[in-house]
Amino acid sequence: MTATSARAHRPALRPGVLLSPPLLRGPRTVHLVKHPGTGAAFEVGIKEHFLISLLDGTRNLDDVAPAYADRFGRRLGEEQWNRFLGLLGARGLLSGAPEPAAPAPAPKPPNTFWRGTRPLVADADATTARLHRALRPLLRRVVQLPLLAAVSLLMGALAWRSGALLDDTAELVRQPVALMGVALFLWMSITLHELAHGVAAQHYGGRVAEIGLRWRFPAALLHCTVDNYLFLPGRRAKLVVAGAGAHLNMVLLLPFGIWWLLLPTGAPERVPLAGLLVLGTVQALSNLVPLPPLDGYRMLGHALGTAHLAPETRIYLALRRSGGAEALAGYSARARRIYTAYAIGSAVLVLLVAAATCAFVLVLIG
């Protein structure tokens, strides 16, 4: 291609290429770009994302360069333009570019008796799509907002009656059959928790890559992997997908909570119901704790618009301890506030969780 034709070329992005919203990662703001066929994803900076967003097949360098200069205060050179298009073409992100080879999957450790994973369905996306079609009427706001309000009221009522609730729960350890029933229900609710993530992702246009069984002896749990929900537009969709499992767990407790509240003191059903409510609430709310790898950690990252919040916080703290002023110079004031606040907050949270766990165990065995 001659220099003149390269300058006049009007490139277009391959249909289906996914672009994420801006994400804070350390001192940089990045966007994720994902190939629709191979699934390969990589990070680009603000300038590269700006150029990618202009590739609609109607603009050449003479059209792009002024817009780039207005945004970034410097003109885009022909050499930079050609290098940029060459990189996108090599990755198969331009319309008409050869399809690149799919990246080799990361090697998985072999399954053993002690640990492993195994897919349970051939097409996880189709399975969750069928579930979504069946449950779509229940996913409307007119249904979910009252459920959320009912869960909040139940939590308030249980907190008000927490003394009686914990007294009944303490009796559960003396009823092994009832305890096994509660444990079975909680195991099933974890399965539904994972499927809730997949159905919520389908609701907002996401894709489910795998539904499978993951075991770490002696526990075995279902897992549902959502492939591209980081590329969903808007924060609300990502927050709903990440929080859908905990929300469903709390909704499942609603009938049992009402039942327990209506039972008279001394009723035999109160003990298993109380244990189910306490352990189920702990299970659901613990998932909202903003520590990795819990759902609450993902929700906090989405709310703040960050990527790899915990690892980047550790890197930031290491730079501060080493006194690397030059390395810290690239961090914006917002990044410094976020990483400092998360470091302090997560340390305090770990201490509070440890204290609450000790207190809970002492109440049950006391």
Automatic annotation (TrEMBL):
Keyword Transmembrane helix: yes
Membrane-spanning intervals of the chain: 142-160, 172-192, 239-261, 273-291, 341-365
Keywords: Membrane, Transmembrane, Transmembrane helix
Domain of life according to the entry: Bacteria
Identification of the protein by name: M50 family metallopeptidase
Phylogenetic placement of the source organism: Bacteria, Bacillati, Actinomycetota, Actinomycetes, Kitasatosporales
